[in-house]
Write a structure and sequence with these properties.
With 152 residues, this protein is of the alpha/beta class. It has 6 helices and 4 strands, in the order βαβαβαβααα.
Length: 152
Amino acid sequence: MNSLNTVEVSGDAPGDVEELVRFVLHEKGISGAEVSVHFCDAEEIARLNREYRGIDAPTDVLSFPMHESLSAMMDALSLTPSVLLGDLVLSEPVIRQNCETYGVSFSEELTRLVIHGMLHLLGETHQGYDHGDPMLAEQERLVKRHLEAKEQ
């Protein structure tokens, strides 16, 4: 497998989003993936949420995976050195609202949402928002690991 992961970030990206995406890919043992990350305002993400999910409200992160599952993506990687994993769309204004709502720093919430979106791009899903859910437990494990690594 190709060891290079490609991350393209557009919009006014806060923080080191590219490093976060690479962190998740490394932790999940993925190489040769291409990921696009776009930052937008609350209005644009509300439009996308309405168009693709039928929910007429802004959200913090949307994931648009190119493969139905991790195994489908891994199969594609076995045939070619690089595979488009998908697109993440995040809204900084909504993320900042989350910080106030949940009482967390911007860095922590951005980390959580990039990881959440990346897990969806890798084919993981969750039922509701119970922290016992396997995907959300993995999300929080990765958030903790990344934040601890940044402190060192």
